[in-house]
Structure of Oxysterol-binding protein:
Amino acid sequence: FYTGFDSDNSSGDFSEANHKVPEMLDLDPHQSNRTGKHNGETEIQENGIKRHRTSLPAPMFSRSDFSVWSILKKCIGLELSKITMPIVFNEPLSFLQRITEYMEHIYLINKACSHADPLERMQAVAAFAVSAVASQWERTGKPFNPLLGETYELTREDLGFRFISEQVSHHPPISAFYSEGLNKDFIFHGSIYPKLKFWGKSIEAEPRGTITLELLKHNEAYTWTNPTCCVHNVIIGKLWLEQYGMVEIVNHSTGDKCVLNFKPCGLFGKELHRVEGYIQDKHRKKLCVIYGKWTECLWCTDPTTYDTYKKNEKRGGEQKKKSVSEDDIKSENDEADDMPEIQDTVQFIPGSKLLWRINCRPPNSSQMYNFTSFAVSLNELEKGMEAILAPTDCRLRPDIRNMENGNMDVASKEKERLEEKQRAARKERAKDEVEWHTRWFHQGTNPYTGTPDWLYSGGYFDRNFSDCPDIY
């Protein structure tokens, strides 16, 4: 799920304290923490690089006894942003941390920075835009709604970036983020406002807001918006999600544009997870065709090859469906119930170049909310970190921390306490006629699109947190 269900206006009818949390799943103790370190300790490899944890402190609980519909049927006609969902439907991350997962495939930004050819840069940026939604595959748990003023920071020296985000608005819920390369080679920023719609059998989240990537060496800026995410089978059956809609990536320096079509699965699921599109120059000449699946991989080929292949396919030619294997990648790219039961991989077109391939998930991912290895590390509270983090950082949020540790009853009570504290603070501000002031971001205009945006004010990493709000 996207954020947007929890509310400080809830009547309490849907309090998670009224629900019994199911028993925990068994987890192989040998896999529970491969580094042999507890939550506050991160092992240091011999080469001096920190080894991040590979498992959560406790396995996830079973959701088999719960139905999203059992909650939503009481809410027909209400705004979804004003519904408090039981904690059983959550995953132990804040939406601010979920946004940070955009950076999992940061090597694609590094690749874009290294290319001299603007077409190759656009290809890498397109792959990065697709990879940003890949971690949501099979992630049907909703992240915690950030509290107003909540923040999250992440510095990964091994990956070459640092990241800061802040919840800048509660109604409507808006999350702003800013990231920069440690080598001063890129800036990545944006704000996201998920617009939720309940269609009876499904919940649709349209992630409004502009995403901007600046490649400083090339003096280029790219902007785009994410596709729509839809969670199916909220009434009965297994929850599953799809991404669909048109995504346009614009290079504001060259006029090049990449148009990507995240296809809806269709009646028989033939198009499930498929992405197709093209890159065109400022004169609308197609430079290359992009195809693949956002859950697997992305390839590109020249338009002539693509058109010829498709024509032969329509004529019933003997085109064989090749599985995308390691051999394919090495040979073609030296650099490199309603739910449809579809197991086929991308139909590979000979001569294509691999742009991106999804990372393998940990073997115990299914017992860790289907987290990727990157996601597993996001809420890790390393030794000594509390002394330097902003007091508003997600890692210090007690409901998420208790849920991660398997203390579900405590997590539910803490979540209610935090929401009540947020309500009380809002009433106090209204009483005193005091406006809320964001700390690290301000409202402004995106310099490339001319649309309203939230812009980073700077100064976070100076670590002057004396005037941060008390939200926990």
The longest helix spans residues 408-432. The two ends are 24 Å apart (CA to CA). The chain has a mean pLDDT of 82. Residues 312 and 318 are 8 Å apart (CA to CA).
